[in-house]
Amino acid sequence: xxxxLLLIAYLLGSLSGSLLLGKLRGVDIRTLGSGxxxxxNALRTxxxxxxxxxxxxxxxKGALAAWLAVRFLxxxxxxxxxxxxxxxxxxxxxxxxxxxxxxxxxxxTLVGVLAVVWPAGLLAVLGAWLxxxxxxxxxxxxTVLAVLVLVxxxxxxxxxxxxxxxAASAALxxxxxxxANLARLRxxxxxxxxxxxxxxxxxxxxxx
Length: 208
Prior knowledge:
By secondary structure, the chain is mainly alpha-helical. The chain has twelve helices and no strands. The model has no long low-confidence stretch (mean pLDDT 91).
């Protein structure tokens, strides 16, 4: 049962929201903008409605994969399998079998997983993401910093080894998928969402 749930979670993750919706519109957003099949590139290249649909699908499939694991894992199963199914869904989004193993960066799917298996972790991630985004205006950097918050949370959580492995694996995976963002950030070419940098502009003006 556990192996079957891992496979189902991966296959669900492979259902990319932007690529499925793109087929209806006749576009492949991997050929546009940054070339990424995630919500940010969907917003930049196709507009708000398309991006919203992308995020709903990508968050929903992560939540469904995690819920299936919680619902159908045997009572005697190690809880780490639940986190494993969540990581399988995120991996499916990054390397989707239905789309030539070229997918998105995994953040939205991870949000769906966290909503089911670790709601407190999700709140911390969203809080850190919003704080970083309003300070810096960099979406990719904010995503990486937000996911890294899961590691100290897991360490302070009372010795749940499965949760710690999940947190570290998720952080490493999103560091990998956002490597191009980090490289552009170092080079000074990373796009900035200036409208979102509310706190950063406020602090800069006061400092001036």
